[in-house]
Amino acid sequence: MSPTNPIRVLLADDQTLVRAAFAMLVESARDMEVVAQAGTGAEAVELARSERADLVVMDIRMPELDGIEATRLIAADDDLAGVKVLVLTTYDTDEHIMEALRAGASGFLVKDTRPADLLAAIRTVAAGESLLSPGPTSRLIARVLSAPQVPAANGAGGPDVLTDRERQVLTLVARGLNNTEIAESLGLSPLTAKTHVSRIMSKLCARDRAQLVIVAYESGLVTPGGG
């Protein structure tokens, strides 16, 4: 996105002061603009449909409809296929993050993240990448592995449908590497790495890289502290 074609951001949080602070931050960036603000999950869904935002910064705990269900409705709407969701949370709501990712969120951050990191996260998710805040990730994965298994994507298979190289790439995606880092690790060109990731997403019917992370951990391809 360029200043002439800014990232259109919808802010969803039930706290007016929090929304105001986020709005000031987003508007301070030349490559983004706030197109709407929502105080409930229901408003977030309605405004996502009417304002055609590129990205929704979504709080989890909101009245009427929580951020997880709002995310699920946005992700399930074919007319909103291009809308990304970046979930904000606090450490005491880690148990909801996997639900949010399964619902279609492209990533999450904790609310005490640095302003510059939030702006960077918006750019990352708007560009089609996934983003997982490093702080809660290990605790999150531990919860995932102890929870009942729920398919991460609507595909017919898991990593068994992938080639050996694709499984290698999926493993690195799950470890948080971007395409350039994957390319360097495997001795590939960045374009080849990107192509592998796209093919993996297609085979697993995954919405984005965040769902690939879920597949990798839930299938046992990757384990906390292992590979």
Describe the 3D structure.
With 227 residues, the protein is α/β, with parallel strands linked by helices. It has 2 domains: 7-145, Response regulator (Rossmann fold), CATH 3.40.50; 159-218, Arc Repressor Mutant, subunit A, CATH 1.10.10.10. It is 48% helix and 13% strand. The protein has helices spanning 16-27, 41-51, 67-76, 97-103, 115-126, 134-146, 164-174, 179-186, 190-203, 209-218; strands at residues 7-12, 32-38, 55-59, 84-89, 107-110, 131-132. Strands 2-1-3-4-5-6 form a 6-stranded parallel beta sheet, sandwiched between helices. The longest helix has 14 residues, at 190-203. Residues 155-220 form the HTH luxR-type domain. Keywords: DNA-binding, Phosphoprotein, Transcription, Transcription regulation. GO terms for molecular function: DNA binding.
Quick structural gist:
InterPro entries: CheY-like_superfamily, NreC/VraR/RcsB-like_REC, Sig_transdc_resp-reg_C-effctor, Sig_transdc_resp-reg_receiver, Tscrpt_reg_LuxR_C, WalR-like. The protein has 227 residues and is of the alpha/beta class. 48% of the residues lie in helices and 13% in strands.
Which terms would index this structure?
10 helices; 227 residues; 2 domains; Arc Repressor Mutant, subunit A; 6-stranded parallel beta sheet; globular; alpha/beta; Rossmann fold
Strand arrangement across the biggest beta sheet: 2-1-3-4-5-6
C-alpha end-to-end distance: 35 Å
Helix content bin: 40-55%
Number of helices: 10
- Please tell me how large the radius of gyration is: 17 Å
Poorly predicted ranges = 150-156
Number of domains: 2
CATH level-1 class of the largest domain: Alpha Beta
Order of helices and strands: EHEHEHEHEHEHHHHH
Q: How much strand?
A: 5-15%
- Summing up helix and strand content along with how strands pair, one would put the structural category as alpha/beta
The largest pleated sheet is described as: 6 strands, parallel
What is the arithmetic mean of pLDDT? 82
Keywords: DNA-binding, Phosphoprotein, Transcription, Transcription regulation
GO molecular function, one term: DNA binding
GO biological process, one term: phosphorelay signal transduction system
Pfam families: GerE, Response_reg
